[in-house]
Amino acid sequence: MSNPPVRANDDLSLVRDLSELLEEKGLSEIEIERGDFRVRVARQLSVAAAPAVSVAPGAPAAVSAAPASADPADHPGVLTSPMVGTAYLAPEPGARAFVEVGATVRQGQTVLIVEAMKTMNAIPAPRAGTVREILVADGQPVEFGEPLLIID
Protein backbone atom coordinates (compact mmCIF):
# COMPACT_ATOMS: atom_id res chain seq x y z
CA MET A 1 0.00 0.00 0.00
CA SER A 2 1.45 3.37 -0.97
CA ASN A 3 1.32 6.53 1.10
CA PRO A 4 -1.46 8.95 0.20
CA PRO A 5 -0.33 12.09 -1.63
CA VAL A 6 0.24 15.18 0.48
CA ARG A 7 -2.45 17.83 0.06
CA ALA A 8 -1.52 21.45 -0.54
CA ASN A 9 -3.10 22.67 2.72
CA ASP A 10 -0.94 20.15 4.63
CA ASP A 11 2.30 21.54 3.16
CA LEU A 12 2.69 24.44 5.56
CA SER A 13 1.92 22.26 8.56
CA LEU A 14 4.44 19.66 7.37
CA VAL A 15 7.18 22.25 6.90
CA ARG A 16 6.48 23.68 10.39
CA ASP A 17 6.64 20.20 11.93
CA LEU A 18 9.91 19.41 10.15
CA SER A 19 11.37 22.78 11.18
CA GLU A 20 10.51 22.12 14.82
CA LEU A 21 12.04 18.64 14.63
CA LEU A 22 15.16 20.09 13.00
CA GLU A 23 15.57 22.59 15.85
CA GLU A 24 14.64 20.13 18.60
CA LYS A 25 17.19 17.52 17.48
CA GLY A 26 19.90 20.01 16.48
CA LEU A 27 19.96 18.82 12.85
CA SER A 28 21.15 20.89 9.91
CA GLU A 29 18.66 19.37 7.46
CA ILE A 30 15.86 16.84 7.18
CA GLU A 31 14.15 15.34 4.14
CA ILE A 32 11.06 13.20 3.65
CA GLU A 33 9.58 11.60 0.58
CA ARG A 34 6.00 10.45 -0.02
CA GLY A 35 5.40 9.07 -3.47
CA ASP A 36 6.29 11.83 -5.93
CA PHE A 37 6.28 14.47 -3.18
CA ARG A 38 9.61 15.37 -1.59
CA VAL A 39 10.32 18.00 1.08
CA ARG A 40 13.74 19.04 2.33
CA VAL A 41 14.08 21.55 5.15
CA ALA A 42 17.56 22.87 5.90
CA ARG A 43 18.88 25.65 8.02
CA GLN A 44 21.78 27.77 6.87
CA LEU A 45 24.65 27.64 9.32
CA SER A 46 26.71 30.80 9.29
CA VAL A 47 30.45 30.54 8.81
CA ALA A 48 30.95 32.69 11.91
CA ALA A 49 29.15 30.06 14.01
CA ALA A 50 31.81 27.43 13.25
CA PRO A 51 34.63 27.71 15.79
CA ALA A 52 37.89 28.41 14.00
CA VAL A 53 39.93 26.69 16.69
CA SER A 54 38.36 23.32 15.98
CA VAL A 55 39.27 23.64 12.31
CA ALA A 56 42.95 24.19 13.00
CA PRO A 57 43.96 23.45 16.59
CA GLY A 58 47.37 24.85 17.41
CA ALA A 59 47.60 26.81 14.17
CA PRO A 60 48.72 30.45 14.21
CA ALA A 61 45.88 32.96 14.51
CA ALA A 62 46.47 34.25 10.97
CA VAL A 63 45.73 30.76 9.61
CA SER A 64 42.82 29.72 11.83
CA ALA A 65 40.72 32.86 11.68
CA ALA A 66 40.39 35.78 9.31
CA PRO A 67 39.62 39.27 10.62
CA ALA A 68 35.88 39.79 11.13
CA SER A 69 35.78 42.50 8.45
CA ALA A 70 37.46 40.33 5.79
CA ASP A 71 35.04 38.79 3.31
CA PRO A 72 36.25 35.31 2.25
CA ALA A 73 34.52 35.76 -1.11
CA ASP A 74 36.98 38.59 -1.91
CA HIS A 75 40.08 36.43 -1.36
CA PRO A 76 41.83 35.56 -4.66
CA GLY A 77 42.21 31.90 -3.61
CA VAL A 78 38.61 31.26 -2.63
CA LEU A 79 36.92 28.10 -3.91
CA THR A 80 33.17 28.61 -4.22
CA SER A 81 30.42 26.03 -4.48
CA PRO A 82 29.49 25.29 -8.09
CA MET A 83 25.99 24.19 -7.00
CA VAL A 84 23.40 24.10 -4.24
CA GLY A 85 23.80 21.01 -2.06
CA THR A 86 25.43 19.59 1.05
CA ALA A 87 29.18 19.85 1.57
CA TYR A 88 31.12 16.86 2.87
CA LEU A 89 34.75 17.13 3.92
CA ALA A 90 35.43 13.36 3.75
CA PRO A 91 34.59 10.63 1.23
CA GLU A 92 32.35 8.84 3.75
CA PRO A 93 31.27 9.19 7.39
CA GLY A 94 34.12 8.50 9.79
CA ALA A 95 36.78 8.70 7.07
CA ARG A 96 39.69 11.12 7.14
CA ALA A 97 38.97 14.53 5.56
CA PHE A 98 40.17 15.17 2.01
CA VAL A 99 42.20 18.17 3.22
CA GLU A 100 42.98 20.03 6.44
CA VAL A 101 44.09 23.58 7.13
CA GLY A 102 47.79 23.82 6.28
CA ALA A 103 47.71 20.92 3.79
CA THR A 104 49.39 21.36 0.41
CA VAL A 105 47.10 20.55 -2.52
CA ARG A 106 47.72 20.18 -6.23
CA GLN A 107 45.49 21.53 -8.97
CA GLY A 108 42.65 19.09 -9.68
CA GLN A 109 42.94 17.27 -6.34
CA THR A 110 39.56 16.58 -4.70
CA VAL A 111 39.20 18.84 -1.67
CA LEU A 112 35.57 18.09 -0.74
CA ILE A 113 32.28 16.75 -2.07
CA VAL A 114 29.01 18.57 -2.69
CA GLU A 115 25.98 16.28 -2.77
CA ALA A 116 23.19 17.56 -5.00
CA MET A 117 20.08 15.56 -5.82
CA LYS A 118 21.60 12.38 -4.36
CA THR A 119 24.69 12.70 -6.57
CA MET A 120 28.12 13.09 -5.00
CA ASN A 121 30.12 15.72 -6.90
CA ALA A 122 33.88 15.80 -6.26
CA ILE A 123 35.08 19.40 -6.02
CA PRO A 124 38.67 19.81 -7.27
CA ALA A 125 41.23 22.40 -6.18
CA PRO A 126 41.29 25.08 -8.89
CA ARG A 127 45.00 25.64 -8.30
CA ALA A 128 47.96 24.28 -6.37
CA GLY A 129 48.72 25.78 -2.99
CA THR A 130 48.16 25.53 0.75
CA VAL A 131 44.72 25.28 2.35
CA ARG A 132 44.49 28.45 4.42
CA GLU A 133 40.96 28.13 5.72
CA ILE A 134 37.99 25.73 5.52
CA LEU A 135 34.81 27.80 5.59
CA VAL A 136 32.17 25.06 5.83
CA ALA A 137 31.41 22.29 8.30
CA ASP A 138 30.97 18.66 7.31
CA GLY A 139 27.34 18.08 6.30
CA GLN A 140 26.57 21.79 5.96
CA PRO A 141 24.07 22.92 3.32
CA VAL A 142 25.71 25.26 0.79
CA GLU A 143 24.42 27.66 -1.85
CA PHE A 144 25.70 28.26 -5.36
CA GLY A 145 28.69 30.62 -5.15
CA GLU A 146 29.15 30.21 -1.39
CA PRO A 147 32.82 30.23 -0.32
CA LEU A 148 33.94 26.72 0.69
CA LEU A 149 37.66 27.09 1.37
CA ILE A 150 40.64 29.28 0.65
CA ILE A 151 43.83 28.09 -1.05
CA ASP A 152 46.91 30.34 -0.92
Account of the protein in words:
The protein is α+β, with helices and mostly antiparallel strands and 152 residues long. Helix content is 17%, strand content 32%. It has a four-stranded antiparallel sheet with strand order 3-10-8-5, with no helix packed on it. A four-stranded antiparallel sheet has the order 7-6-4-9, with no helix packed on it. The chain has a two-stranded antiparallel sheet with strand order 1-2. The N and C termini lie far apart (56 Å). Residues 45-69 have low confidence and may be disordered.
The CATH superfamily title of the largest domain: RNA polymerase II/Efflux pump adaptor protein, barrel-sandwich hybrid domain
The CATH topology name of the largest domain reads: OB fold (Dihydrolipoamide Acetyltransferase, E2P)
The number of domains: 2
The average pLDDT value, as a whole number, equals: 75
Largest sheet: 4 strands, antiparallel
Shape field? elongated
The value of Rg in angstroms is 18 Å
Structural class: alpha+beta
CA-to-CA gap between the ends? 56 Å
Instruction: Name the helicity range.
Output: 10-25%
Number of strands: 10
Architecture of the largest domain, according to CATH? Beta Barrel
Task: Name the poorly predicted regions.
Answer: 45-69
The CATH class of the largest domain turns out to be Mainly Beta
Number of helices: 3
- Proportion of β residues? 25-35%
